[in-house]
Amino acid sequence: MITSSPEILSDTAASHAHLAKLLRNGGLVAFPTETVYGLGADACDDRAVARIYEAKGRPSFNPLIVHFADLETLRQHVVWRPEADVLAQAYWPGPLTLVLKRQPDSPISPLVSAGLETLAVRLPAHDTARAVLRAFGGGVAAPSANRSGQISPTQAGHVRDSLGARVDAILDGGSCKVGVESTIVGLVDKPVLLRPGGITEDELAQTLGRHLAVRHKAEAISAPGQLMSHYAPDSLVRLNATEWEPNELRLGFGEVECDLNLSESEDLVEAAANLFDYLHQLDARQAGTIAVSPIPHEGLGIAINDRLSRAAAPRDS
Ligand code: AMP
Ligand code: MG
């Protein structure tokens, strides 16, 4: 249903339950965290996650942070590490995000991590965020609740002004205290500071009892596409295919005969929801080449084409 403006709800238990219900039904909801207002969707729901990218109007698929109410649920989705225990005890709930290897059988949508085999997770400290997450029970993927390129929202009104009816409901929990983003630490290999934030490098080093490698400014994760280069299919990728060559695997869009179809009805949200899963599936069949139908360069199609052209780009080695 299209409405002209989203519901703005007061911070009550009934509202927390209502947001949880919207999340379970694939909705997008905005709520305050200790950093900024987040735009949340059920992290396990491919379509709901695709709607986050659509609502933000991002030209590419940046991986998203998944928020949880409790450590036990969070740990089901990642490969846990001793250093993660130390950091979790010191800083959670709070503005620290850990990037860990994904559990291979985790039901979290591959679109959340833009096809990477890692997952960014955290337990937020904000009471309202925790109440919504508890009422929902599972992981909520939530980037800042603003259109791409606009300032991060620290009040419910900012979210309404930026996203309008693209969000189903906004929970008004007042102003966020500090608009500083969470500190991100990678724990896939040795500990790496991926993004500075409220918790400093010195504090982290002291807690861990060792230095962290620091990702160089020039290759900061915010640099467009930096992370995307980490996942490239083994197969070659041929774009804008309107005819198929023999031996190619066919990734279609629209009414075409193909091996897997991103969306027969040319629905870009459905196509985005299927993108990473289908690329992985075709790649696993070791075709040599995956040929992809043309995708319109509009709305979510911009991010889909961005991702596909990276997959099709010549490889460094
Ligand atoms: P935001 O939600 O706006 O605070 O941004 C999320 C940040 O987390 C982005 O800078 C992402 O690049 C980063 N991030 C999310 N997932 C991963 C991941 N799997 N590996 C590395 N960085 C990640
Ligand atoms: Mg942002």
Q: What do these coordinates show?
A:
This protein is α/β, with parallel strands linked by helices. It has 2 domains: 8-214, DHBP synthase (Alpha-Beta Complex); 236-311, Threonylcarbamoyl-AMP synthase, C-terminal domain (Rossmann fold), CATH 3.40.50. Helices cover 30% and strands 18% of the residues. α8 (268-284) runs parallel beside α9. The site of magnesium ion (MG) has 3 residues, from loops.
What is this entry, summarized?
The chain is an alpha/beta fold and 317 residues long.
* CATH topology name of the largest domain: DHBP synthase
Order of helices and strands: EHEEHEHHEEHEHEEEHEEEEHEH
Apparent shape: globular
Classification by helices and strands: alpha/beta
Write down the overall mean pLDDT.
91
Number of helices: 9
What order do the helices and strands come in, and which of them pair?
Blueprint: E1 7-10, H1 13-24, E2 29-32, E3 37-42, H2 46-56, E4 65-67, H3 71-75, H4 82-91, E5 96-101, E6 118-122, H5 127-136, E7 140-141, H6 156-163, E8 169-172, E9 183-186, E10 192-195, H7 201-208, E11 213-214, E12 236-238, E13 249-252, E14 260-261, H8 268-284, E15 289-292, H9 300-312
Parallel strand pairs: 1-8, 2-8, 4-6, 5-9, 10-11, 12-15, 13-14, 13-15
Antiparallel strand pairs: 2-3, 3-7, 4-7, 5-6, 9-10
Bound molecules: adenosine monophosphate (AMP) and magnesium ion.
Adenosine monophosphate (AMP) is lined by residues 62-65, 99, 113, 116, 118-120, 143-144, 181, 184, 194-195, 221-222, 227.
